Amino acid sequence: MIKQGLINKKGQSGFTIVELLIVIVVIAILATITIVSYTGFTQRANTTKAQTNARSVQSVAEIHFAELGTYPTAVADFSSTTLSARLPDGVTLLTGITTLSATNGEDSVLYEVCDAGPGGFRVSYWNFSTGAVVEAVEVGECDTAGTASYIRPTAA
Predict the structure, then answer these.
(1) 8-30 b/e with 16+ CB inside 10 Å = b?
(2) Is the pLDDT of residue 124 over 90?
(3) 88 contacts 128 by C-beta, under 8 angstroms
(4) φ, ψ dihedrals at 93, nearest 5°
(5) Is the separation of the CB atoms in 106 and 129 below 8 Å?
(6) Distance CA 9, CA 15 (A)
(7) What is the pTM (predicted TM-score) of this model?
(8) DSSP three-state, residue 137
(9) If DSSP codes are grouped into helix, strand and coil, which group holds residue 144?
(10) What pLDDT, on a 0 to 100 scale, did the predictor assign at position 148?
(11) Is the separation of the CB atoms in 88 and 56 below 8 Å?
(12) What share of the chain is helix, strand, coil (3-state, %, to 5)?
């Protein structure tokens, strides 16, 4: 009798349905944790890149003012051959009525120059972690009387 039971046990092989379901559930949990972590890393990396691009725009605008006495009013001013500094390759300045969003990408920066008054500019970028526009820097005063406003530079 004992031998018969052992023979039947040896002939059976494989996993039960419960064991297979447990393995599938564990794999699904691990995959979910990995995907959530990866999304957070990419959002922070995109935000950091956008922040760095905003600082580059700020630096070039301040160098433009130091060397030529005015802030850039056109996108072409940022790549002027008379400047000692230029924007890094890949940085996109938004012009016209374009608004910042996640679809613009981490290379896009919004630069707005004051249209009157003592002068100044502001630079904004998209924060991919919070899903909002962040004003990185505002330099100078646009107009304390409220008659001037920030405008976006022309494309040419």
Answers:
(1) eeeeeeeeeeeeeeeeeeeeeee
(2) no
(3) no
(4) -90, 125
(5) no
(6) 13
(7) 0.68
(8) strand
(9) coil
(10) 57
(11) yes
(12) 45, 20, 35
Question: What does the pLDDT read at residue 17?
Answer: 93
**What SS3 state is found at 149?**
coil
Question: How many angstroms separate the Cα of 136 from the Cα of each of 8, 50, 103, 121?
Answer: 74, 10, 19, 11
Cα–Cα dist 98/39, whole Å: 26
Q: Give 53-100 pLDDT, tens digit per residue.
A: 888 888 888 888 888 888 888 888 887 767 788 888 888 888 766 678
Residue showing tokens 């060397």 = 67
DSSP 69-125: SS---BGGGGG-TTSS--PPTT-EEE-TT----GGG-TTEEEEEEESSTT-EEEEEE
* Exposed e or buried b per residue across 39-50, where buried means at least 16 C-beta atoms within 10 angstroms of its C-beta: eeeebeebbebb
Token pair 């349905």: residue: 17
Structure tokens at 133: 């526009």
Q: What is the rounded distance in angstroms from the CA atom of residue 36 to the CA atom of residue 41?
A: 9
